[in-house]
Amino acid sequence: MPPAGLGPRPAMSTPRARHIPQLLDTHAEDLAFLWAQRRMVLDSAEHTLRDFAHLTERIEAHVQGLLVAPTPALRQRLEVALGGGERDDIFAAAIAVLRCEDAAAVRWVLAEFSRAAGPTLDGLRDAMGQAPAALVGEELRQALARAKPATAAAAATALANLRLLNPEAPGLARLLVEDEAAACALGWRAATRADCLGAAPSAARPHREALARPEPAVRHAAWASAAWLGHAPLWVQLRRSVAEGDAVATHWLCVLGAPEDSKALGTAVMALPEPDQRCAALARFGHPAALPTLVRWMEGEDAVTAHAAGLAFTRITGAEIQGERRTLPVPDDADEIDREMAPLVWTPDIAKARRLLEEQGAQWSTATRWCAGRRMDMAFAADDLAALDLQARWDVAARAALAGRPVSAPPPIV
Fold it and tell me: Cβ distance 61 to 23 under 8 Å?
């Protein structure tokens, strides 16, 4: 007979689930959103490395929230995400499956990776680059060596982000001369990170061949490699390419250029097709000689150019010159949605910009490169980079590497 106050034991009921499906939905949605933010801020002119680290912490918190669920529930989520084909949703589901460290589930994800393409491959690549290295490293090496170019490039990227990519891997060398432009560009980015992080970087890369390619993405990646590896012999070719009207070379001369490049860049920038491109290029170079030009563009009748010029003025000087709020014009043939979504921006306060140029122009002229009001034509130590936004950080580090005094590894690949 049971003790007083206690009845017979109830019959065994179905075990309660260890997770709440609706809460998993929230974790997955927030994780996908934050991953997209992480990718976008990596070259941000507004966020610092500290902001990036905070994003990474929030991402990890949502991963841990998903890991409360059993493996079958996580696999089901990934199956749904794969059907949707959205890169960040696929990442959010795949990273949870990979982090649950179930061997069969990991093999399944690797099989999906081997046959994926487009945004699906991108999302799985992102997840592989954040997965436990012991679970995916060997399979990624095999994919680099044997898979089709797009998959091999994705494997190289994941290995580079895991700091496992061998700079001398034969599969990597093949990617650098691959005809498929997207795979070639991704291979160059992975090789750059591996070369900079490896104890024995590759002594030779086919930079000149890549820089002769017609695809901008390949040339961008090859110029980045030349800068981060301190490949000074290509400096003459960069200036020659700028003179020939190569917009990619113009971008990299804005990032890497010396004061004596100011005149050549002024000519090259004017050849860029869009006003926001011209203004952004002058801001990236940061030479104070551009400030009168930017003020003159603010005074023009074109609202798009005036707005872009105001942003560039602020990017160089750090001075806020916001004037009035205005909706930017849209093309005459724009549909109703485009008209309703027309950007609402701050137009520059031209009088304030002119006054600042008169009052502080002499001070700004004491340096040859500025960013957000900070003098940039000086040597930076590694500890100095923490105060910079991420775009400025990578620019400073690329210039330092080109000068033979590296202060930072290249950014992760996104």
Answer: no
